[in-house]
Amino acid sequence: MSSYKVGDGMQQIKMAVDISTFGLAASRAIALKPGTGDPLKAVAHSENASGDIPQQGIGPAIALAEYTITVMTKIDLLGDDAARKSASTQVSARYIFDDGEEGHKEFSDPIIEISDDCRTVILYKDIELKS
């Protein structure tokens, strides 16, 4: 699993998601503290059909340490079979974190699931936040 060192200060950790697709996309980022039984909490979501999450603070470093951020993106592709198949192979994502102990760090290796008819693409990325 990918990881990002947030540190143990009060500085706001910033996160952004950049989805590259020809389809209509929606993204949501949630935080989970594994093994605690604490409920999931949404920390960010996309606001338009691009799936992008603009850079924003997701919480202070000290409060986020030991959480896992999971970003899920659903993409709907249009067009004929050949167009959808081509578009599904061109989907990519960047997950960007800033202001933690590691400074600026990007991840670009989501799990990608493509439906049999290439109409839907789902991306998943987990990033473990460490103190």
Strand fraction: over 45%
Run of helices and strands: EEEEEHEHEEEE
CA-based shape:
elongated
How many distinct helices?
Answer: 2
Instruction: State the distance separating the first and last CA atoms.
Output: 16 Å
Question: Radius of gyration, Cα only, in angstroms?
Answer: 16 Å
Overall mean pLDDT: 97
Query: Percent helix among the residues?
Result: under 10%
Number of domains: 1
Please identify the structural class as seen in this structure: mainly beta
* Main beta sheet strand tally, sense and closure: 6 strands, mixed
Let me know the number of strands. Answer: 10
Provide the low-confidence segments as ranges.
none
List the helices and strands and how they pair.
Blueprint: E1 2-5, E2 12-20, E3 24-32, E4 41-45, E5 53-60, H1 61-64, E6 68-76, H2 81-89, E7 92-100, E8 103-107, E9 111-114, E10 120-130
Parallel strand pairs: 1-10
Antiparallel strand pairs: 2-5, 2-7, 3-4, 3-6, 6-10, 7-8, 9-10
Structure description:
The protein has helices spanning 61-64, 81-89, and strands at residues 2-5, 12-20, 24-32, 41-45, 53-60, 68-76, 92-100, 103-107, 111-114, 120-130. The radius of gyration is 16 Å and the shape is elongated. Strand 9 (111-114) and strand 10 (120-130) form a beta hairpin. The strands form 2 sheets. Strands 1, 3, 4, 6, 9 and 10 form a 6-stranded mixed beta sheet that branches. The chain has a 4-stranded antiparallel beta sheet with strand order 5-2-7-8. The model has no long low-confidence stretch (mean pLDDT 97). The protein is mostly beta strands.
